[in-house]
Amino acid sequence: MDRDRLAQALLATFLEELEGHIVSLNRELLALERETAPARMAELVASLLRTLHSVKGAARAASATLVETACHRMEEVLEGVRDAGAGTAEVFELCFTTVDALDDAGRRLAARQELVGSPLEALLPQLERAAAPPASSRGRAPATAATVPALDDVAHPARAPLEPTPPASAEPPSPQEPPPAAPAGVDALPVRVSAQKLDALLARSGELRVATLRLEGRAEALESVREALAQAREAVLGTPGEQALLRAETELSRVTMDLAADRRTLGGVATGLDDEVRRARTLSFEEGCEGLERAARDVARSLDRQVRLEIHGGALELDRSLLQGLREPLLHLVRNAVAHGLESPEERERQGKPPEGRLTLSARLKGSRVEVTVDDDGRGLNLAALRERARARGLKVPEDDEEAARLVFLPGLSTAVTVTQVAGRGVGLDVVRMHVEGLRGSVEVTTLPDRGTCFTLDVPLTLSTLRVLLVSAGGQILALASESVARLVRLSPGEVRDVEGRPAWASGDALVPLASLADVLGLPPGPPRTRRGAVVLASGTARAVVVVDEVLAEQEALVRSLGHRVRRARHVSAAAVLPDGRLSLLLNPVSLVRAAGGRPAASLFPAPAAQRTRRRVVLADDSPTTRALEQSILESAGYEVVACVDGADAWERLQAGGADALVLDVEMPRMDGFSLTEAVRASPRFSRLPVVLVTARGKAEDKARGLQAGASAYLVKSAFDPTSLLETLRRLL
User: Cα-flanking dihedrals φ and ψ of residue 377, to 5°?
Assistant: First the structure.
């Protein structure tokens, strides 16, 4: 190997080592900063010195002289901490800044940039001052002089040792004693493999699994041919061709059995390979959280707060890609918790809390999904401020506290009084939601005043394969993650209700938003049917029903990214590679649930072929103004309207002359709208009559009561729109 190639190889090895050493330095510095026991402090300093010595030796081999010098100076600073038995806040801040500068230097070297003018070079004078011995000991030689690299080693990196040079005080190994033998197994020998190579290997193993599934289909097709041949032989029984057919059937049966055996063998190999590759790609949750404790510490120091970050479920092994995808959301949530959630030590003590805030990250498995929580014991979300900011932006302000808490995920919505580096711009939690939904997951928030806030991230365990439900809509075959499907239903017109101009499915005591999948995706509508297949989707605590043309099958599929060009495709998260090799768009359930809840009513069922030109509507409202307005709207649309002053009047007129539909107010004398609806549903003659409630009562419990009474649609007067009333009647009739 020539000198240039050797230098490049040494630099690549050094940079790979440096990444792990940076993590170790941050972790041990955080522990040292909190430690008060002298013995434990000495252990931590010794560990830090060993790490710095390793970095220094590797930097020397890679000709990274500036890195080597900085590590040497930081060693001297830490030796001063060890000798003094404690470190000042300024010393620890300098050490953390040095680690950041070393990390920056590694990135610069990886990009083939010079370190001249880098933060590390600018930091050297400060390190030298901090490492300088006190005036009383300046006449003595420094204890670490033996670790200073020789000029010859620096000038000739090709001759530098690949391992760190041992300190001068270390005992050289005895020449009579052979080095310890390596263990018989190879498990103790770590091997570094780049994430890109593992990703490529996983893709190949996934393709092998698809090929195995495709081979299974071929075996089934061959078995079908054999059965057809057996039927043909029976049809020509007793003819000269029977023996030829029998021989062909026997040979075909043998080939089918051999193919089935090969398929089982290949399937076992493919599954085993896929499992091993996945295992090689896993990291512990604790490793995935590296750097978050440092981020919490830095934000807390900048705001004069105290925080302790705890990790629960740290040993849980998760896919590297999943942990990488979670890193940005977790960083935002940690910084947000310290900046927005935790109080100052003085405020916490006044509330009877310990001065140090607690921030907990936990992970646990839930079937094929992972639940990650970020929980703090701070002041909780300021729901009043959230409502005020939302109202100022013209947004709908929910009355329910749980719904109001979700306002934090809206873009540009922040309750921070001032804008700082970590808070006040209103983009952090919107970014969290976008990142988590990009992982086919969801994020929820719960909060209690002065007790804290908990963010719950629910994401799939693997991002490369999943079970999908295949459906057809608008002439397209589309895929939905099976884990997001709560149930399958068949809808008839009587099961669809109308609430404020939007269709809903009546499920027990709840109204679930409903929409046509073809309509949501902008595809042409499917053929008209009297009963429609539908999928109930779940996204966290939210539900929605999407109506499809047909439910086809459930299969395992590989997930493939659509690339950066179509990364923001509406309602689409990836492509699914099906066992037969076809591609299908994988839909985003979170986006579909959100879209279904905001769509106006659409015609989901065909209207009867023969309809009367004028429909009779019984209208009841005790307000003359409202009654006259609604009567004018209905008559202008061609309806025959029977106007009534209250519910009792409407019930009498209905029994006398019948009707095609009822439009009722709720609060009326003698008989209110709820009571009249219950009477209509209990009547054998009118039990299937459409009933539309038009009322000023817009609370959730009022809508639920209307549903229980049997209303077909529920419109709120505050959002009254003549179009919604007419569209509702058109759909119901």
Answer: -110, 40
- Asked if residues 683 and 712 have their Cβ atoms less than 8 Å apart, the reply is no
Q: Are residues 668 and 647 in contact, defined by beta-carbon separation less than 8 angstroms?
A: yes
Q: Residue 499, Cβ neighbours under 10 Å: how many?
A: 22
pLDDT class of 101 with cuts at 50, 70, 90: very high
What's at 289, amino acid-wise?
C
Single out the residue of 265, 321, 261, 323 nearest to residue 292, CA to CA. 323
Q: Name 170's Cβ contacts closer than 8 Å, sequence gap at least 6.
A: none
Compute the distance between CA of residue 82 and CA of residue 584 in angstroms, rounded to an integer.
Answer: 62
Burial of 711 per CB tally in 10 Å (0-12, 13-18, 19+): buried
Domain boundary assignment for the chain: 3-159, 195-280, 284-460, 465-596, 616-732
Q: Share the mean pLDDT of the chain.
A: 79
Q: Distance (Å, rounded) from C-alpha 688 to C-alpha 680?
A: 8
Q: Please tell me the distance from the alpha carbon of residue 219 to that of residue 456, in angstroms, as a whole number.
A: 45
Q: What single-letter DSSP state applies at residue 359?
A: E
**Separation of alpha carbons 81 and 35, rounded Å:** 12
Query: For 273-312, what is each residue's pLDDT tens digit?
Result: 777 777 777 888 998 888 899 889 989 988 999 999 999 9
| pTM beyond 0.85 | no
550, exposed or middle or buried, with CB in 10 Å at 0-12, 13-18, 19+?
middle
Query: Are the CB atoms for 308 and 358 separated by under 8 Å?
Result: yes
- Domain topology for 616-732: Rossmann fold (3.40.50)
239, pLDDT greater than 70: no
CATH number of 3-159: 1.20.120.160
Give CATH for domain 284-460: 3.30.565.10
For the domain covering 465-596, report its CATH number: 2.40.50.180
CA 72 → CA 61, 79, 584, distances in Å?
Answer: 15, 11, 57
Has residue 417 got a pLDDT over 70?
no
